[in-house]
Amino acid sequence: MMKKSVPFLVIFVFVLIIIMLFLSLASTKKMIVVESGNINQLPIEMKAGLYQDSDCGMVIDDLNDASQVIIKSGKSWFFHDHGGMIKWLEDKEFRDSAKIWVMSRDTKKWIDARGAFYSLKDKTAMGYGFGAYEKNSDEYVDFETMRLRMLRGETLRNPLIRKQLLGN
Fold first, then answer.
1. Among candidates 80, 163, 92, which has minimal Cα distance to 121?
2. pTM given for the model
3. Helical (H) or strand (E) element with 77
4. Are 129 and 114 in contact (CB under 8 A)?
């Protein structure tokens, strides 16, 4: 009887150790998911590794395609891919009134998302392909076009669209 229970006991102890390890890591690293008090709706200076994406929950390790959604009450949410931000924002009642800031790939500063231009084929954190730019180019689209393409699934994650845009 004892020989049969030893493997179960070993597995139980192993799982318990893993759970304790994850809990200790989670308690030592305080991730910022939502921030309050940003009444002026200005972009918050983010640091890589301190913020958590409000759509997928991943740590924002790279700010190249970071975005922020800020509502009038000052509540701010953070994202590491503009496509994920669009997906998350779509069913929110403040979708049209929120201030949205995106990190510009060309000028490396926070710009108004609705006035930005978007590439369709950049390498982004979640693979949607929408890099934001302050300066326009013939290949870029406006915010509303990017939003619609995201909602219709016309992103680099779609193999047909990927082949169409990248040829591979």
1. 163
2. 0.81
3. strand 76-79
4. no
Q: What are the structure tokens assigned to 162, written together?
A: 């990927």
Distance of CA 8 to the CA centre of its chain: 40
Helix (H, G, I), strand (E, B) or coil at 146: helix
Q: Tens digit of pLDDT for each residue in 37-69?
A: 999 999 999 999 999 999 998 999 999 999 999
CA distance 166 to 146: 17
Bridge partners of residue 111, in order along the sequence: 102
The rounded distance, in Å, linking the Cα atoms of 16 and 41 is 44
Instruction: Note the residue count of the chain.
Output: 168
- 121-138 pLDDT, tens digit per residue, is 999 999 999 999 999 999
For residue 114, report the phi and psi dihedrals to the nearest 5 degrees.
Answer: -75, -15
Q: 135 in helix, strand or coil? A: coil
Measured from the Cβ of residue 25, the count of other Cβ atoms closer than 10 Å reads 9
The two tokens of residue 1 are: 């009887």
60: left (phi over 0), alpha (psi -120 to 50) or beta: beta
